[in-house]
Amino acid sequence: MSYQAEGSGGDGLDLAGGTADGERVNQGAEVTANRCQADGCLADLSGLKRYFRRYHVCETHIRAQVVLISGRPVRFCDQCSTFHALSFFDGTRRWEAGRGGE
Q1: How far is the C-alpha of 55 from the C-alpha of 15, rounded, in Å?
Q2: Region (Disordered) spans which residues (predicted)?
Q3: Which end of the chain has fewer beta carbons closer than 10 Å to its terminal beta carbon, N or C?
């Protein structure tokens, strides 16, 4: 299973398979089934809720302020359920700047 990464500017990973402008670039990052996709994390997701398995991320990394995926610092957005570069966020919030959330 390959995940897509944003091609212009390298601004994180888009688990939905594309970018806001429709560009699709395959980075070749392979994720083992039922394992967290964070670099170095071997957490088994098989016993977790479907939400965590769907996005291939453990409970620790879905709530983390910074996660390394394919060597890139990203954060999980609670609003769109996608990893984005840290520059997409306002401070320590877990939703994108300019998209609301409160």
Answers
A1: 7
A2: 1-21
A3: C
Q: Tell me how many domains the chain contains.
A: 1
Cα 76 to the chain's mean position, in Å? 5
Nearest by Cα to 86 from 13, 19, 3, 7 = 13
Q: Let me know how long the chain is.
A: 102
Cα 101 to Cα 42, 65, 70, 90, 94: the distances in Å are 31, 17, 28, 11, 9
pLDDT tens-place string over residues 82-101: 899 988 888 776 666 665 54
- Tens of pLDDT, residue by residue over 6-25, are 333 444 454 444 444 443 44
Distances from the Cα of 25 to the Cα of 7, 8, 53, 58, 97, angstroms:
6, 9, 23, 25, 24
Whether 21 is in a domain gets the answer yes
- Give the domain extent around 16: 2-88
Q: 3-state class of 87 per DSSP?
A: helix
